[in-house]
Amino acid sequence: MTRDAWGWEPVHETRGPSDVAPSKPAAPRAPVADPSPVPVPVDPDIDQVTAPLPGPAAEEILPEPWSPLDGDRAPAAATDTPRRSSYEALGAAAAANAALHASGAAHTPLAGVPVVSGLAHDHDHAPVSDAPGFVPIFAGAETAGAAPAWHAVAESPAPSPRGPEEQAPALYRPRVAATSSASTGPAPSPDDAPLPGEGGAGAAAGGGTPVGGPERRPGRAWPLILIGLILLGAAFAAAWLLLLRPEAVTLPEQSVLTAPSEPAASTLEPFVAEDPTPFLAAMPTVAGDWTLTDATPIDVDEDKALPDRVAEGYSLTYSDGTATVVVRARQLYSEDDAAKALTKAAGEGAAIDDATVAGTVVGLRTERSREQDDQVLWTNGSAYFVAVGDRSDIDDLLSTLGL
């Protein structure tokens, strides 16, 4: 179409008011129902006619292992998708909402308020990459060879890393006495073996002292151990003699019993002790009508008069031919021990008086009566006596002794 004259008239004819601008939505029309589906017959041989769809790539099914050392086959580095800021997301949402509102969409924000959606999801999920994942490769360990024998290493030492001229010292080879079935002599003893550095088959390679110093011979330490034990025993013995040895006990010299006041009138044969102690020898054998007929030692370990303080003791039997009086004589370590023994035997509340011999006070005296017999207890210095029998017989015996 051409113009015949120049001017401002439009080339095309003026459109009527029924036309709608391209940016405006089309006029509403009545809904048209979809046509009813028509069944289509299925060919039973369709699987033979239709070409199969191509399968996925081999990398997706079984990816090849990759190592960081394979630079030429390294997967492409995944690029990070730039995240939109809140201002960019707000602008994009406003433009999308305006286009929807202009096209006549029913669900749009009122008054043009944009709806920002999808901003939180940009930070939650990373973009999916189709690159194959990293698969680590584990290399198998190399099998270590068998260690060489010590004699092979000793014969061919390895070169020193310090230089070819400066070699490492040769390995130490222990000396082993070689025995042969053809040898008839006795096996060499360890004392006959050559010392290190003297040469021979047992010397180290190179003629020097073997690594680790000279060889130690067994049995050299026994003399030193024996000397140490002897010195230790001597030290213990000296400590016992100086600190733990019991002190010597010296009994006081005293007249235990005085001479009989009456002449001897007994016809009985007196008891004679063999090798008596000074305490037993001081006991009178004949006093008036009374004669010592027997003397039995008392076990001081089991004596309960005063435990651990009785030096010696005897049970003396005196007789006049018809009556008998037993005197238990004990020698204690001191006068205080004798007084304690008498006080213990008398009991609480017993009357204790002074014991006198010819008018001289020599100790303590008390009496005790029982159903079966009577007892008179007295001390004389460090000696403690208990006379047991009939009271008249005891008084008769003690009167002849000067008590």
Topology (elements, then pairings):
Layout: H1 46-49, H2 58-61, H3 86-102, H4 119-124, H5 150-155, H6 222-244, H7 278-281, E1 286-287, E2 290-297, E3 310-319, E4 324-332, H8 335-346, E5 353-357, E6 360-369, E7 374-380, E8 383-389, H9 391-400
Antiparallel strand pairs: 1-2, 2-3, 3-4, 4-8, 5-6, 6-7, 7-8
Keywords: Membrane, Transmembrane, Transmembrane helix
Biased composition (Gly residues): 197-211
Region (Disordered): 1-84, 175-215
The count of DSSP E runs of length 2 or more, i.e. the number of strands, is: 8
The proportion of residues in beta strands is 5-15%
Q: What's the helix count? A: 9
Runs in which pLDDT lies below 50 for 5 or more consecutive residues are: 119-125, 199-206
The ordered H/E elements are HHHHHHHEEEEHEEEEH
Integer average pLDDT = 73
Give me the side-by-side strand order of the main sheet: 1-2-3-4-8-7-6-5
Q: Globular, elongated, flat, extended or rod-shaped: what is the shape?
A: elongated
The name CATH uses for the topology of the domain at 278-400 is Phosphorylase Kinase, domain 1
CATH class of the domain at 278-400: Alpha Beta
What is the level-2 CATH architecture name of the domain at 278-400? Answer: 2-Layer Sandwich
How many strands, what sense, and barrel or not for the largest sheet? 8 strands, antiparallel
- Estimated radius of gyration: 67 Å
Terminal-residue CA separation: 185 Å
Structural class by secondary-structure content: alpha+beta
